[in-house]
Specification:
alpha+beta, elongated, Acyl dehydratase, HotDog_dom_sf, five-stranded antiparallel β-sheet, 138 residues, MaoC-like_dom, Thiol Ester Dehydrase, Chain A
């Protein structure tokens, strides 16, 4: 197992940009996850539903956010992850994954950090998340 990373309270995590999101990205994710809701592949259906066009499924952005944080802290140190879907992601949009370290708790010879994470398009939050990760203790 890899060693936990060293994080400090208030630290900004190295952001990652993804996109622009394409129809192909959405269709591939639909095929992998089995979500064939027409909101994700049929532009006319999406417009009739009140959207400007097809949207990505929320789990796609949540998965991108989870993969990013797992890359940063090493997946074996990810202790918990929860998400909240805030707004839809549309074709052509660029997604920015970012976050910071809110707190660190140390007990005996282990330490865990609570992270606040978000996937955004400009100033608009698409998905917000919280993660708890094992970190190196000082």
């Amino acid at each position: 197992m890899r060693e936990p990373v060293l994080l400090t309270v208030g630290q900004d995590l190295e952001p990652r940009s993804i996109g622009p999101v394409t129809q192909t990205d959405i269709v591939r994710f639909a095929g992998a996850g089995g979500d064939f809701n027409p909101l994700h592949h049929d532009p006319e259906y999406a417009v009739r539903a009140g959207l400007p066009g097809v949207i990505s499924m929320g789990q796609m952005q949540a998965g991108m956010l989870a993969a990013w944080v797992a890359d940063l802290v090493h997946v074996e140190h990810l202790l918990g992850f929860s998400v909240r879907f805030a707004s839809p992601l549309q074709i052509g949009e660029m997604l920015t994954l970012a976050g910071d370290v809110e707190s660190i708790e140390t007990a005996a010879d282990t330490a865990a950090a609570d992270l606040s994470l978000q996937a955004t398009v400009g100033d608009r939050v698409v998905v917000s998340a919280r993660a708890r990760v094992r970190v190196a203790s000082n």
